[in-house]
Amino acid sequence: MSWRLVLLCLLALCWAVPAQADDNRPLSVQIEALGEGVYAARWKIPTNVAARHVPQVAADGCEATGHARNWSDPLGHWRDERWQCAASPAEIAITYPAANPALATIVRFNPEGEPVRTVVAPAERERISLAGAEASATDWQGFLVLGLEHIWIGFDHLLFVAGLIFIAGTWQRVLVTITGFTVAHSITLALSALDIVRLPIAAIEAVIALSIVFLAVEIVKGPRDTLTWRRPVVVAAAFGLLHGFGFAAVLREIGLPDEGFVAALLAFNVGIEIGQVLFAAVVLGALQLLHRFGPAAAQGSAPRFAGYAVGTLASFWMIERLAGAL
Question: Membrane-spanning regions, if any (predicted)?
Fold first, then answer.
């Protein structure tokens, strides 16, 4: 038992710093043609990035008119401009006041008389092409990378997965448990992205934090004859339905492309699964190393320490998110 407890303690300490958890969403840019060469441009950075980091977005051949404003709300920090353009923008340039705070970019471009285009770009790209051919060619790749990045910066989702691995224990039970979690959140991710089911994201994120508190309590109490310890896949699937709505928040804010909708949705979900599998492999590999080379003596206080550390952090997230929803 000690090797699992030591690992969980380390995970709790590692996640104690980024207390904003799953809010590191991309820079979202929306550009819409209003007619006669006028375009409405609006962009947003997530709330866990300071408002002073809102970048400047510009397009070649376009000039900003006098209409511009900045504001903040629970969704992020915004800037809105009107552009007068000599021709349809072919490329935009993104300039941050300092360094890019590790944000990918999603651009939704609605040109006049043409289908809406959605382009996803990694954080290091400062110039983004809006050309139809290039945009359609990079959609699925961009959404794949976005899904992969999203799960790796989604500290609350990963901490929940780590708790499931700890409770499941063996490779076989971990495989079944993670599969249940994957199937469940894939269902609600698709339902939310298709706008079939819509729930308030603030409440969902608070419940996601509550799911981590639930696992922390189980870890503190230790193995016993309960559904969580007997059938962790049931708990994984139940909470996985809620985590899927959390994954869908990024896609719902900006929208999926009209062309290649299914491919983009599938790519985003596959990216999440790749990141999740890599994380589970790392955790399980570390568990095996600790089991083989770690100290043999079990530390009786370690389970409670780990459970209280994880539970306290998740409780902070839950209270913070509930406060933000009010």
Answer: 150-167, 174-194, 200-220, 232-251, 263-290, 302-319
